[in-house]
Each structure stands twice: as structure tokens, then as C-alpha cells.
Write a structure and sequence with these properties.
The complex is a heterodimer of chains A (555) and B (254). The longest helix of chain A is centred in the first third of the chain and has 34 residues. Chain A starts with a helix and ends with a helix. With 555 residues, chain A is mostly helical. Chain A folds into 2 domains: 252 residues, no CATH class; 205 residues, no CATH class. Chain A is globular, with a radius of gyration of 27 Å. Chain B is α/β, with parallel strands linked by helices and 254 residues long. Helix content of chain B is 39%, strand content 24%. In chain B, the strands form 2 sheets. In chain B, strands 6-7-8-3-9-10 form a 6-stranded mixed β-sheet, with helices on both faces. A 4-stranded antiparallel β-sheet of chain B has the order 2-1-4-5. In chain B, β1 and β2 form a beta hairpin. In chain B, α3 packs across α4 and α3 packs parallel to α5. The termini of chain B are far apart. Classes of the chains: A mainly alpha (555), B alpha/beta (254). At the A-B interface, α12 and α17 of A face α2 and α3 of B.
Chain lengths: 555, 254
């Protein structure tokens, strides 16, 4: 039953190789290794520091691993529930499988395997540098990978079984499509809540000396396990026990026996409930919709655009706000924005005394890069998939007299206008919080507007260059290779603009520092003109490339 | 009304359509037949301007689909074989959107939407999202969308798939009425009875090449057949079914 999946993956890999995918592989490998190296590097330093702390060093290391694994459990549970919904109830191969003489247990095991791989591969990859850091710092030896894998594998199975069972029960209560909507809102709401909460408790304060006032309490908290019933604790015990030279087999028994028992129980529940759930999953699409408000509100406003562009924009907005998996991401976005502004507010600049003017200006200037990066991530999520999402309907767009230029125009502005509003909000609010000077405010606003126009164009162009017409879930599209290339291109653009603009900003700061009036030199003007030229080029060229690419699409 | 001149389409080293030349006169209901994988859909998609030909050209009236795409496409309504539409739009919204693509809006479009939904018995589903439509209902919606701008030419790929007998009959009447008023239809189908009953002329394509074209009488003359039906003619031209192999499949494993 899983053969078609890995055969497809193999064929795709072969096709990639045939169409010169070596470069792609190299880029992916470099980025992946870079990420691993970064995680490993940070953890290595932290663990080495812990190792040298007497008494509580090993406790701290164990606690850190247990916390990391606990966060893995929550991520895995959530991701398994969502993935199980697709693989058990909404996948396209289910009609064939359910109508074939395949018994319930085989179907369960195959789909559980699929769910496990799809929902856990990222966590598993993330675990590699973490365990490696532990192995290196605590001299794990050759057998450590075996112990780590032996503990980690059943650890992945448990949330997969629990997540699938939760989905099975949910689908028996609600129809699958409603469950998906419900889950995406709950998941994103929860994620947003966690981010906000985590930020508001200000973990950076723990690093300050005054945080260690109650050392004894601290040690007591460290000694107590999060919960002896949590599999994350069993993995920690198995791994830390082995690393400490006192191998404890009980946690490994617990992990494997629980995983085995869970699969058996899961299969029993599956055999009992799957058929009713699968039947319910076939119904429940949303029915009546009131579209009058849209047409009334936007129709008048967009009248000057002409029928084709107007209807295109209205259509794009309707599709976005009617798709829960799309609009619910705005919740996360709002949380991130709040955290962003909170971070600026929490900078150690504000501690009562007068903040030096040049420090504020430097932060305000560098904030442009950070804001640009945030905007790029948002563009990757919302603008990059725009072309791919039209794939299945391209027959209609290509056979109608719609100019592709109009299509691109609509896609560009539907994405860019909200991004611009967000960009201006971030820049103006941060500069207000920082009490930046009018000069920095003007430079900030001008640059971020130019950058936003360019970032949108780049997102659209890379989306057209690396389209994913077969993907139905818009959230998956930015995680493709094209999304990675887009992010790399945008980071390069941000770096270039900041480097060029640092020349006039430095002049300005220098003059202010020396208490001299700012003299506008030719170099300053040239730098600003160059920034404008770079951003305009990064807007116009990608849009042209996108247009040419869309013209050559074949379906 | 539709002229194909030396139309060729390559997918890598595979030639899907090979030097096809065909003329569909104004007011004709032209059948386009062929076995699976013969190049029918590729040809129709090139006519609709979705695929770019490797060589040759397509004219709708006097307008070249590649050189004057806007003019050519404005005269054309295309009905694909697979009804992919925006799932999160209602039927009425989808038709309004398609009318917009053809530069039409306002009260006339609203009236036309009501008219078409009424004809295809979709009025009660007007304000429901397409995701709740059945395959046949989607097909009817797409047929409505191809008619919304009052085209001169309809190019249709497998129109009867998924339609109930009532809708199939309606579509046949609609095509007859459309050509009776001077419209032109180029239709690919596997339902040979429908092709024989409806079409004025028929072209048969195999391996990307037109192997026969003309009226039924002309096709019989070209193949030196007697008074045989379209099905036998089609099988004779395209190789036919091997009775021996069929028997082997049915008896295998017993």
C-alpha cells in the first residue's frame, strides 16, 4: 500500500536529477547542513558550559533534553492529528484502498506509517544535531546512535498513534472537512498563544544573575521529572543514563512496550470506528454562502479597474477568506507582529536612563533588515503560492481573452497592498517606540516601501519559476525548493540595500554625533538613488520574468 | 471557422500531434474522434490557446490564436474534459467571474447567469459553493461558463462524461440549436452513437495524425466500406479490438 508513495518519490527524484537537479541538491544540502551546524553549535556551547557546572550540570543537560523532547511531543501530537486527517480520511487513494479487499489492520498500519513519516520527518531531522551535541559533549561512543535511535523511534510512534486515534474520534463526531477547519484554527490559535506566552514571560531574564536567587528551589525543580508518565522523560532517562555510564533499561522497555501496545489498541479502535468515520468524511462540505457583501463592497471600489481585473481581485479575496487553512494563518501573523513590537519594547535600551541618540538610530536602521525578513517570510507564505494555486484552473484563464499581464497585476497587488500596510505598520510603530528622528523615520518608510514592492515581485516570480500545481494545500507550497531560493534571493537583496544605505545613514549619524549640521553630499544622494534603482530593478525584472514564465506554462 | 494548418505538438521527443490540417466550416457540428492517447485533447487545447503548438497555426475566423489571442479567444468557448473550478466560489460567482474574464459585467450578465442556471437546472444551487457540487453539476456549470459570453465557436472535449441522460439530451439539443443559429462546434467524444447522430462531419485522429475526415458518406468512400455504421468504421480505421485477446483476458485465471 505504501509502494505508490515511495515509487512516486523515487520517480520525482529521478526526474529532478534528469532535469539538472544537481544544483538544487547542493543548495538543499548546504542549507540543511548549515542549519544542523547552527543547532549543533549553539547546543554544543550550552552543553559544554553545563558540563563544567558542578553538581547541577548533568541535571541541567537532562532537563534541557527533556524540555526539547516535551516540545517535540506537543508539536508531534498536533502535526499527527492534522496529517492523520489527510492520510486516513481525505487522501485521494482512499477510494481505491477502501474498495479493495484490504483488511482493516493492514490499512491502519500502512496509513499510520504514512502519517508518522509525513508528520515526524522534520522533528527527526531536528533531533539529529541535538543528539549529536549530547554524544560529542558527553562522549557517547560508537553505540550511542543505536541507543538514541532505539529510544527515539518508539517516541515518534506514540504521538502518531495518539494523534491518529484523536482524529478518528473527531471525525466520528464532526464531518472531516469541518474538523480540518476547526483544527487549523485551534492549532494556529494555540501556536499564537504559546508564542505570546513564551515571549511575555521573558525567558531572557533567566540568564540574568538576579534570576538565580533561589538556587535550592531551582535544583529541586531540576531534580523533579516533568512527569514520570511522559515518554519524553523516558527518552531523557535512557539517553542521559547511557551518557552518564549507568544504563537504565526500564525506560527503553517502557518506550517499546507502550509503542507496541499503542499500535495494537490503535488498530482495535480503527477497526471499530474507521468505516463510520470514513463515511462521514465524504459529507459535510460547506453549503450556502452569502457573496453579496463582497460584490457590493468591493465591486464599487474596484469599478475603475474594469471587469476582468475587478472580478479577478474579488475572486482572489473570496478564495482567501473562505479557506480556513488560509485566513487562519492571519492569527499567527498577528501574534508574530505583537511579539515583534514587544521585542523592540523589551530591548535593553529602555532602562530609565536617556538612550543615546545614535544607538536608537542604529537599531531603527537595522530594524529595516529584520522587518524586511519578516515581510519576506509572509510573502513566502501568501504571495509565493499565488501562481501555483491557479494551476488547476489555468485551462479557464488561458482559454479566455484575459491578458496574462492582468492576471499578474491582480496577483501582485492583492498580495502587495496588505503587505505594504503591514510593512508601514511595523516600521512606523517601531520607530515611534524607539523615538527615532524624523530623518530615520523618512529613510525607514521610504526603504521599507521600496523593499516591500520588490519582495512581492520576487515572491511572485519565484512562485512562477518553481510552480507546484499538484499541491492542494497552499501551506505546503512555500516549503518547496523554490521557496528556499526565494528566501535566499530576498536576504541578498536586503543585505545589499542595507549596505548601500549605511553610507548616508553613517554620514547622518556622524554629523549628529559631532553636533554639526547635516550636509547633503553627492555621495548620500547617489546612495539613495542606487537603493531606488536596485529596488525598482528587483521589482520590474522579476515581474517580467514571471510574465514570460506564465506565458510558457503548458497544461 | 476553425482552421488548423500543419498543427504539430511535441512533448520532449514524443510527438503528440503530427502535422494536423483541418477545416471546420461555420455552422458545422464537427466530431473529433480517436482512441485514447491519439492526440484529441492536445489538439483541442491548442485550439483553445492553452497549449502552444510546436509548429503550425490555429485560426478562429481570421484570427490566429497565437498572434491575435485576445480576438481569437473572445470568439471561443472551451469546455474541458475535467471540470476543475474554484471550489470556494458559488455557481453564480463562478459564472460572474468568467463573464469578467471576457470583459462583460452588469445587469446583462446577471440575467444571463440566471438564464443559464435555469436551463441547466442549477438554480437551486446558485448560491452554494462549488465544492458541494457533484461531478455532473460541475460539468453543467462549466458548460454554462463556456456559453456566458455568447461565443461563435464552441470547442468541447468529452461533453457527455458525468452527465445524466436528461442533461445529455439537453446538451445535444443545445448544440443543435447553436449550430442552427450559425454557431460552430468542434466536439471530441468517445460516444460514437452521439457523434453519428449529431455531427455533420467527422475527423478521426490516430497516433497524432488525421486518418480520415469528412461526412459519413465520405468516410465510407475513403475506407471503401459498404453501408457500415460509425463504430465499425472507427474500429476499421483505428485497428479495432482483438477478439482473441479479449477472450484470453476474460478466461484467464479460471
Amino acid at each position: 500500500m505504501l509502494q505508490p508513495k515511495w515509487r512516486t518519490a523515487l520517480t520525482r527524484a529521478r526526474q529532478d536529477r534528469a532535469s539538472g537537479g544537481a544544483g538544487k541538491l547542493v543548495v538543499l544540502a548546504v542549507v540543511g547542513l548549515g542549519f544542523w551546524a547552527a543547532v549543533f553549535g549553539v547546543l554544543f556551547r550550552v552543553l559544554r558550559y553545563f558540563r563544567d557546572v558542578r553538581e547541577i550540570g548533568a541535571l541541567l543537560a537532562g532537563k534541557l533534553l527533556s524540555l526539547a523532547l516535551l516540545s517535540f511531543v506537543s508539536v508531534l501530537l498536533l502535526s499527527n492529528v492534522i496529517t492523520a486527517l489527510s492520510s486516513f480520511f481525505l487522501a485521494k487513494d482512499l477510494d481505491l484502498l477502501v474498495s479493495s479487499p484490504v483488511d482493516g489492520v493492514r490499512l491502519y498500519v500502512a496509513k499510520l506509517g504514512e502519517t508518522l513519516i509525513n508528520s515526524s520527518w522534520m522533528v527527526a531531522l531536528m533531533a539529529v544535531p541535538i543528539f549529536t551535541a549530547y554524544a560529542v559533549v558527553y562522549h557517547g561512543g560508537i553505540l550511542f546512535p543505536l541507543v538514541a535511535a532505539g529510544a527515539f523511534l518508539p517516541f515518534l510512534v506514540l504521538p502518531a498513534v495518539l494523534g491518529s486515534a484523536a482524529t478518528l474520534i473527531l471525525v466520528n463526531v464532526f464531518p472531516a472537512r469541518r474538523t480540518r477547519d476547526l483544527l487549523s484554527i485551534i492549532a494556529l490559535g494555540a501556536a499564537a498563544g504559546v508564542i505570546l506566552l513564551f515571549r511575555i514571560i521573558r525567558p531572557e531574564q533567566l540568564a540574568r544573575p538576579e534570576g538565580f536567587r533561589n538556587l535550592l528551589d531551582f535544583i529541586t525543580v531540576l531534580r523533579a521529572p516533568a512527569s514520570p508518565l511522559l515518554p519524553s522523560d523516558w527518552v531523557t532517562k535512557a539517553v542521559m543514563g547511557y551518557l552518564g555510564g549507568r544504563m537504565d533499561w526500564l525506560p527503553l522497555y517502557l518506550l517499546w512496550s507502550s509503542a507496541g501496545a499503542a499500535v495494537v489498541l490503535g488498530a482495535l479502535v480503527h477497526v471499530q470506528l474507521y468505516h463510520t468515520g470514513f463515511t462521514r468524511a465524504q459529507e459535510g462540505a460547506e453549503r450556502f454562502v452569502r457573496g453579496g457583501l463582497w460584490t457590493w463592497a468591493l465591486g464599487g471600489l474596484l469599478r475603475p479597474l474594469g471587469p476582468a481585473r475587478r472580478e479577478f481581485v474579488i475572486k482572489d479575496l473570496k478564495l482567501f477568506f473562505r479557506d480556513t487553512t488560509q485566513w487562519s494563518q492571519l492569527i499567527l501573523l498577528a501574534a508574530l507582529l505583537l511579539v515583534y513590537l514587544f521585542n523592540i519594547r523589551a530591548l535593553p535600551l529602555f532602562r530609565g536612563e536617556q538612550v543615546p541618540f545614535y544607538l536608537v538610530s542604529v537599531v531603527s536602521f537595522l530594524n529595516l533588515g529584520l522587518a524586511g525578513f519578516v515581510l519576506a517570510s509572509i510573502a513566502a507564505r501568501f504571495i509565493f503560492p499565488a501562481v501555483s494555486l491557479e494551476g488547476r484552473q489555468m485551462w479557464l484563464l488561458r482559454s479566455s481573452p484575459l491578458e496574462l499581464r492582468a492576471l499578474l497585476w491582480s496577483k501582485y497587488w492583492v498580495g502587495t497592498v496588505p503587505l505594504l500596510v503591514l510593512a508601514l505598520a511595523i516600521t512606523v510603530l517601531t520607530n515611534l517606540i524607539l523615538k527615532a528622528s524624523p530623518f530615520m523615520m523618512v529613510v525607514g518608510i521610504g526603504t521599507i516601501v521600496l523593499l516591500t514592492l520588490a519582495i512581492s515581485a520576487l515572491a511572485l516570480a519565484f512562485g512562477a519559476l518553481y510552480p507546484q500545481f499538484e499541491t492542494e494545500n497552499a501551506a505546503q507550497i512555500p516549503t518547496s525548493f523554490g521557496g528556499l531560493v526565494f528566501m535566499m534571493a530576498t536576504v541578498a537583496l536586503l543585505a545589499l540595500v542595507i549596505v548601500i544605505e549605511s553610507v548616508p545613514v553613517y554620514r547622518y549619524l556622524r554629523a549628529a554625533f559631532d553636533h554639526e549640521p547635516l550636509r547633503v553630499s553627492a555621495l548620500m544622494i547617489a546612495a539613495f538613488v542606487l537603493v531606488i534603482a536596485v529596488c525598482v530593478t528587483a521589482t520590474v525584472v522579476p515581474l517580467r520574468v514571471a510574465l514570460r514564465r506564465i506565458e510558457r506554462f503548458e497544461f | 471557422m476553425i482552421k488548423l494548418e500543419g498543427l504539430t505538438k511535441d512533448y520532449g521527443s514524443f510527438r503528440a500531434v503530427d502535422d494536423v490540417t483541418l477545416h471546420v466550416p461555420k455552422g458545422a457540428l464537427y466530431g473529433f474522434l480517436g482512441p485514447n492517447g491519439a492526440g484529441k485533447t492536445t489538439t483541442l487545447r491548442m485550439i483553445a490557446g492553452i497549449l502552444r503548438p510546436t509548429a503550425g497555426r490555429v485560426l478562429i475566423g481570421d484570427d490566429d490564436v497565437i498572434r491575435r489571442p485576445m480576438a481569437a479567444k473572445a470568439r471561443l468557448g472551451f469546455i474541458p474534459d475535467r471540470p476543475f473550478v474554484y471550489e470556494k466560489l458559488t455557481g453564480a460567482e463562478f459564472l460572474r467571474f468568467v463573464a469578467g474574464l471576457y470583459g462583460q459585467d452588469g445587469q446583462l450578465v446577471e440575467r444571463r447567469i440566471d438564464e443559464l442556471l435555469e436551463v441547466f437546472e442549477l438554480t437551486t444551487w446558485k448560491n452554494e459553493l462549488v465544492e458541494s457540487y457533484s461531478h455532473g453539476m460541475r460539468q453543467k456549470l462549466i458548460i454554462s461558463s463556456a456559453l456566458i459570453h455568447r461565443p461563435e465557436v464552441i470547442v468541447v472535449d468529452e461533453p457527455m462524461v458525468g452527465l445524466d441522460p436528461r442533461a445529455a439530451r439537453l446538451l445535444k439539443d443545445l448544440f443543435k440549436g447553436f449550430v442552427g443559429r450559425g454557431g460552430t462546434v468542434l466536439m471530441s467524444t468517445h460516444t460514437l452513437e452521439i457523434a453519428e447522430a449529431l455531427c455533420d462531419r467527422i475527423a478521426i485522429i490516430q497516433g497524432g495524425r488525421i486518418v480520415a475526415a469528412g461526412t459519413m458518406a465520405e468516410l465510407r468512400a475513403q475506407t471503401a466500406s459498404g453501408n457500415i455504421g460509425l463504430e465499425d468504421l472507427f474500429l476499421r480505421l483505428t485497428g479495432g479490438a482483438e477478439a482473441k485477446e479479449l477472450a484470453a483476458v476474460l478466461e484467464g485465471g479460471r
